Amino acid sequence: MSFEREATLLDTNLEQWTTANKQNLDSYITDNNFQNDMYKVKIYNDTEFVSLNIYKVPVKILKYNFANVRISAEKAKVEQDRNGVPLNPMNESDQKLVEQILLTSRFYSKTATEDLLEDIKKKELEEPAIVTIDGVIWNGNRRVAILNKLRHDTGEQRYDYVNIVRLPELSFKELKKLERRLQMQKDWKQSYGPIQTRLDVRQSLKDPSWDLLEIIASYGGRYDEDDLKKMREEIDLIDEYLVRIKRPKDYALIQSADKGGGVETFTAIHDILKAEEKKNTKPIDQEKIKLACFRIKHHPDSTYEHLRDFRRVLNDAQSRNEFVKNSDTFKNFNAITKSGNEFDNGTLKSEYDNLDASYEVILNAKKDAKKLVEKALVILQSIKEDRIPKNNKEFKEVLANVEKVVSSLKSKS
Asked: Does 175 reside within a domain?
């Protein structure tokens, strides 16, 4: 079957699926199901509320929103593991898969879903879910997922129905704008995480139907053009890192990193690379610095503070020279990148230790010269004779450099 024929069939099936969902929901939007209450939603802008009728409908007729930003990171990983086959909202098993993401997502706080489940048990849902004209949940996906879980686990009829408000017919862009307005609210609604925000920003910037001012306005003016561009570049860096460590689209790995090893690390890497661009550093050296950043980040003890230290090292001529001279990444860049083993534990430690040693140069520059010489003397005197390499050219070169430094210090004292 040709690609064009397959695409036409998919569009036709989706249209039929949407129509069937709409007709099914129509049958419940009646006076019998009206709850004698209204719910206000800012559908079209940040200031004007629209009052919508609240109806009670069966939970099972609603569909999860596959474009929900809060599941975007884990959805991308699932699709990556399926060799790029996208999740299909028309497929009931994919609906169940999205439900599991909503219930078990690592991007919510550890107790958020459990607390919400207990709250629903006690009080049921205090506000309605917001759904599209064809029954796709645009706000309340996780709450409906919990209702479905309680419905299946307990069999209690009180979980069979949910209060909803039905939106008028809106374009996808209008729905996205509404989603961003809704996510600013608090209560049980989890705000976008740093990964999801960057994925959402990148998607909008790539979509030719959005102009820049629309995107800025849709986030309530919280981000300007530079912020948006930076977030896009940061998520691109995250993607590149995940591919290089052979964990493509595993955004949960970044989100769950502790000790300051998450998204803030890539903000630090981004700042380093932008600084190197401004210095007109040669492109090949920028690539070496980027790989060094990734390797330092990948060390299990690394935090964003180490990347900040790396930036300080690169901004100081003496410490930069020390780092480059002893860097495994700089000395063996071609071999490392061709080997496919850029994150070998042994060389990671070497680069991590090299950063510490190079940063020490900056710290020592601020210390008392006499105390530094005394410290160096103690270190040299601690060398045991049986540890001295015999007829080692590199060791003799280091000793010669020590002698030069001592001679220079004596001449200036």
From this structure: yes
Q: Residue 211: how many CB atoms within 10 A of its CB?
A: 11
Considering 221, 256, 291, which residue would you say is the last residue of a domain?
256
- Please give the tally of structural domains in the chain: 2
| Choice between 78 and 115, residue whose per-residue pLDDT is larger | 78
- pLDDT tens for each residue of 46-83: 889 999 999 999 999 999 999 999 899 999 999 999 99
Q: Which domain holds residue 113?
A: 3-191
Paired with 41 in beta bridges are 50
> Residues 216, 176: one domain?
no
pLDDT of residue 119: 80
Collapsing DSSP to helix, strand or coil, 395 comes out as helix
* 251 belongs to a structural domain: yes
DSSP string, 217-252: HHTTT---HHHHHHHHHHHHHHHHHHHHTT-TT-HH
State yes or no: pLDDT of 361 exceeds 90. Answer: no
Within a 13 Å sphere around the CA of 244, how many CA atoms are in the beta-carbon half?
Answer: 22
Domain membership of residue 380 (yes or no) is: no
Confidence tier at 413 by pLDDT (50, 70, 90) = confident
Which residues lie closer than 8 Å to 25 by C-beta, 6 or more apart?
57, 61, 131, 133, 134, 135, 166
* Cα 38 from Cα 51, distance rounded (Å): 6
Last residue of a domain, one of 233, 256, 279: 256
In sequence order, what are the residues at sequence separation of 6 or more whose Cβ sits closer than 8 angstroms to the Cβ of residue 78?
87, 97, 101
* C-alpha dihedral sign at 384, 389, 391, 396: negative
**Sign, Cα dihedral of 70, 72, 75, 81:** negative
Residues 103 and 227 in one domain: no
- Please list, residue by residue across 294-325, b when 16 or more beta carbons sit within 10 angstroms of its beta carbon and e when fewer do: bbbbbbeebbbebbbbbbebbebeebbebbbe
